[in-house]
Amino acid sequence: MKADKFLTAEQQATVVDAVRLAEKGTSGEIRVHIDDECTCDPVKRAEEVFVKLGMHKTQLKNGVLIYLACNSKVFAIIGDKGINDVVPENFWEDVVETMSTHFRAGDFTGGLAQAALMAGEKLKYFFPHMEDDVNELPDEISY
Fold this sequence. Notes:
Layout: H1 9-23, E1 29-35, H2 42-52, E2 63-69, E3 74-79, H3 81-84, H4 93-104, H5 108-126
Parallel strand pairs: 1-2
Antiparallel strand pairs: 2-3
Helix pairs in contact: 1-5, 4-5
């Protein structure tokens, strides 16, 4: 299946709405990217996509990428340097577990949306939303 056909328009809107809601509480920037296939380590691929999407260019280095390869059935969640410098090891572990639970049940929309919401909640402490916050990255799903 082609990545851009993996979710219906309604499902895509649900995920984008979750990203927007999550970003209301944090200055962090959250993106979701869906690939067809991943032929290498999904974290390594997520790092490549992160750079390709320009996510490393945010002012506070506080971008988060939720990556899914729909046909390969692998995923990853990674944060930029600003996040990695201040959060504890295994910071994303509960998000990964939640995604796994949803994905095993075939609920990819719920898994992606919940991951975005959880990322936003987790980032609030380290990167609270600021009065002059600017949305530096698109909220739409990339493919």
